[in-house]
Write a structure and sequence with these properties.
468 residues; alpha/beta; Rossmann fold; 7-stranded mixed β-sheet; 16 helices; 12 strands
């Protein structure tokens, strides 16, 4: 597969959308460029006593709103171009879903499978030390989060390191995606995958688009394939199947399988945990190559792995009617045009995988406010609902049983409020994108999403008076 310059791909999409705006060229140039790029290298003493040099990056793309926000990726493929592209996408993503952050991204060039837990901890803490030393992390400066190859464990190490170096009352807000015990938020783990589901659901509810694709409205009975069964791919698939869709194809690092009769997600996850592979599961057929997953018949394709997976080389072989970009940049600009021309609906990554940053924003708010969502109102709401139910019992002469009483008087806790906020955000953002698409008579959602983001960021730059 040809090597694609990721940042260039992002800017191609930006330029196409920018033509529909009326901002000065200077402002558009400022929005596109990365404000700050920090490249760091440091030594790691490995468990066997040898010394290895580790490379890492932290890119702050836009300072139009502070702090900047973006995950930290651990991958042997990480480089400066990828980190810049991902940081830019974060700026547009935050603007799209009205989260008041600038975009940022971090990366450490390692394959996590090649390091022990103690080595990964030393890498994470030293990387954090470098960020603190240069002012690239802080609750009001730059707030990292998990990404490919990292999770709550690494975010906990980052927080602990930051706290040791900084006397900061709001230290817990220096990073999101943390364990609950360290200021994390309930619902963060599944947030990105949950957001993917909400995004697909909203797209499937637009009758005009479904008529054009020859599909019925709604998630139920739709078939889908997923590339990548990590945190995002798994949770997106989980919520899709719970809503009545059928999983028929899966691609992972060890191979790909396809079964038009349907694949039981939880059984597959258990099988993979036991055997170390998805190959040989049930009645599924093994595909000759991982990339063959894109050529399988299905209604919806969910690329949930890495960037540049659908390119000009394989776009004409993609059979799915809807491509939901759960990963960052899985469809190149050229491939997007090719699939759009044959009538496919591409739901863009800037919207589709925004669930993670939305719930990260809720976590950041929780940590700077020092209060858990639902703590002050849950019992009050339950008491108020109970009074209403008792009045209904008095009027009707009917007494509710214990199970019905608990269901009718349930007060929302943190997880419920987080999910509600995420759902509302994804619905509102999709409506904004489709409105812009209609306003400019566009035939794709990606350009409409970029227009929306550019307009919001551009207005901020004009109001900031940066230009003399």
């Amino acid at each position: 597969m040809a090597k694609y310059n990721f940042f260039e791909q992002v800017n191609k999409n930006f330029d196409k959308a920018a033509a529909y705006t009326k901002f000065d060229k200077g402002i558009l140039s400022q929005i596109k460029m990365c404000n700050t790029v920090y490249h760091v290298s440091f030594p790691l003493r490995r468990d066997d006593g040898s010394v290895e040099v580790i490379e890492g990056w932290r890119v702050e793309h836009s300072h139009h709103k502070m702090p900047t926000k973006g995950g930290i990726r651990y991958s042997h493929k990480v480089d400066e171009d990828e980190t810049m592209a991902l940081a830019a996408l974060m700026s547009y993503k935050c603007a799209l879903v009205d989260v008041p952050f600038g975009g940022a991204k971090g990366g450490v060039k390692i394959s996590t499978r090649s390091y022990s837990e103690s080595e990964l901890e030393r890498i994470t803490r030293r990387y954090t030390f470098e960020l603190v030393k240069k002012g690239f992390i802080g609750p009001g400066v730059d707030v990292p989060a998990p990404d490919y190859g990292t999770g709550a464990r690494e975010m906990g190490w980052i927080l602990d390191t930051y706290r040791q170096m900084k006397d900061d009352l709001n230290a817990e807000a220096c990073v999101t995606g943390k364990p609950i015990s360290q200021g994390g938020i309930r619902g963060r783990t599944e947030a990105t995958g949950r957001g993917v589901y909400f995004g697909i659901r909203e797209a499937l509810n637009v009758k005009k688009d479904m008529d054009a694709l020859g599909l019925e409205v709604g998630v139920e009975d739709k078939t889908f394939c997923v590339q990548g069964l990590g945190n995002v791919g798994y949770h997106a698939s989980k919520y899709m199947t719970e809503a009545g869709a059928k999983l028929i194809g899966v691609a992972e690092i060890e191979g790909a399988i396809y079964d038009p009769a349907g694949i039981d997600l939880e059984a597959l996850m258990a099988y993979r945990k036991e055997t170390g592979s998805i190959i040989g599961f049930g009645t599924s057929k093994e595909l000759s190559d991982n990339s063959m997953i894109f050529e399988m018949d299905c209604d919806i394709m969910i690329p949930a792995a890495l960037e540049s997976q659908i390119t000009a080389e394989n776009a004409n072989k993609v059979k799915a009617k809807i491509i939901a970009e759960a990963a960052n940049g899985p469809v190149t600009a050229d491939a997007h045009e090719m699939m759009k021309e044959r009538g496919a609906l591409i739901i863009p990554d800037t919207y589709m995988n925004a669930g993670g940053v939305v719930v990260s924003y809720f976590e950041w708010l929780k940590d700077i406010q020092h209060v858990r969502y639902g703590r002050m109102n849950k019992k009050f709401d339950e008491g108020s609902l109970l009074k209403i139910v008792r009045e209904l019992e008095s009027i009707s002469g009917k007494a509710y049983n214990t199970a019905d009483l608990e269901r009718l008087t349930y007060g929302a806790g943190e997880a419920d409020l987080v999910d509600s906020g995420l759902e509302e955000t994804m619905i509102t953002a999709y409506n904004q994108i489709t409105e812009i698409r209609e306003q400019h008579n566009l035939n794709d959602l990606r350009t409409a999403a970029f227009i929306n983001a550019i307009q919001k960021i551009g207005i901020m730059y004009e109001q900031m008076g940066i230009f003399p």
